[in-house]
Design a protein that fits this description.
The protein is α/β, with parallel strands linked by helices. The chain has a single domain (10-29, 37-330), classed as UDP-N-acetylmuramoyl-L-alanine:D-glutamate ligase, CATH 3.40.1190. The chain is 37% helix and 24% strand. It has ten helices and 13 strands. The strands form two sheets. Strands 5-4-1-8-9-10-11-12-13 form a nine-stranded mixed sheet, with helices on both faces. A four-stranded mixed sheet has the order 3-2-6-7. Strand 8 (144-148), helix 4 and strand 9 form a beta-alpha-beta unit. The longest helix has 18 residues, at 124-141. The protein is globular.
């Protein structure tokens, strides 16, 4: 399933703390011992890049943007040259971080070891000025903007909030989706983000509740509805791993009611969890870009997340499967 040109909207997906994702496959992982890898490979990573990759696979017109380190620019540019979408980067001193993913085939689990990223403390003020100018340009040009992932050390925790305010001032109708956590996400909400995509742990962090309390699905629904009203959010896409996802969004009618739809996860053989949540967000945005209704957009989100889980690497993703997966997911949405 791909996007019709009649509905095509332009999206930019911004990653301020990208990574070189090094995936290492092992039969099993023995702590404190020598482990021998069966295979390894490297991809350009970071949540915003993963979102752009899946949006591109869905047929969307998407560009990736954000920051890259100067010290290993040749490496990251070589990795980005494999991608089929365009990119526009600001370069900063230091190296782009490397995130290591240990994929064990005996239990199909992924263990992530994420580095903090380049330290931008010495240039934080100047960099924010440059980012603000760049984001102002992007907001004038793109219909949707995604801010995804963590902030690198040295950037203030309200960075997403500052940039979102600039977007809203420049292009009030620009749709802004945020996939972040903790204090940066709170600032994004206060600045007027239109959509967030938390998981249950991130929701608990936002509300100050213990994670255990969200074993009660009614509590999940009540808190998400409260957040919709408090921050005038248009959409919350709540991901819950193998349990599926719940969509909270405004009615397409003029009554502004909140529509709640839930989707079970498709039954696929899990080979990797890398980018599953990013793919969920990308699939939903792809549906929105194509003019699909809420139910079809959630089905496309579920399809993209399931496709990501069922493949060992991004190179194995195929657009042909998205249509069938979307059809299967649509039948399961309630």
């Amino acid at each position: 399933m791909s996007i019709s040109d009649d509905f095509q909207k332009r999206i930019i997906s911004i990653t301020l703390n990208p990574a070189i994702d090094r995936t290492v496959k092992l039969a099993s992982l023995a702590y404190g011992e020598v482990n021998r890898a069966a295979a390894s490979h490297e991809d350009m990573g970071g949540k915003g890049i993963n979102v752009a990759r899946m949006l591109n696979l869905c047929g969307c017109e998407v560009m990736a943007g954000g920051l890259l380190g100067n010290d290993d620019l040749a490496v990251t540019e070589a990795l980005m040259s494999r991608e089929k979408f365009t990119a526009n980067w600001l370069t900063v001193p230091g190296k782009t971080r490397t995130n290591t993913k240990l994929v064990t085939t005996d239990d199909h689990k992924t263990t992530d070891i994420n580095e903090p990223g380049f330290d931008l403390s010495p240039i934080s003020a100047q960099l924010l000025d440059k980012l603000s100018c760049k984001v102002r340009e992007w907001a004038a040009e793109y219909d949707m903007i995604v801010f995804a992932g963590s902030l690198p050390p040295g950037l203030p925790t309200d960075t997403y909030g500052r940039l979102i305010k600039i977007c809203k001032e420049t292009a009030p109708r620009c749709f802004i989706a945020v996939d972040a956590e903790g204090v940066p996400l709170k600032y994004a909400l206060e600045a007027g983000a239109d959509m967030i995509k938390p998981n249950l742990a991130e929701l608990a962090s936002l509300t100050g509740c213990s994670l255990d309390i969200y074993d009660d699905n009614d509590k999940v629904i009540d808190d998400c509805k409260d957040f919709m009203q408090k921050y005038r959010l248009e959409t919350i896409l709540l991901s819950n791993g193998q349990a599926g996802s719940i969509l909270f969004t405004r009615s397409l009618d003029d009554n502004d009611d909140i529509v709640i739809l839930s989707s079970a996860a498709l039954e696929v053989k899990p080979l990797s969890t890398t980018g599953a949540g990013d793919s969920l967000l990308a699939g939903y945005l792809a549906g929105r870009c194509s003019g699909l209704d809420h139910k079809h957009s959630l089905a496309m989100a579920t399809a993209c997340a399931s496709l990501a889980v069922s493949r060992q690497s991004w190179q194995q993703l195929d657009s042909a499967s998205i249509g069938q997966y979307t059809h299967n997911a649509y039948e399961m949405i309630r």
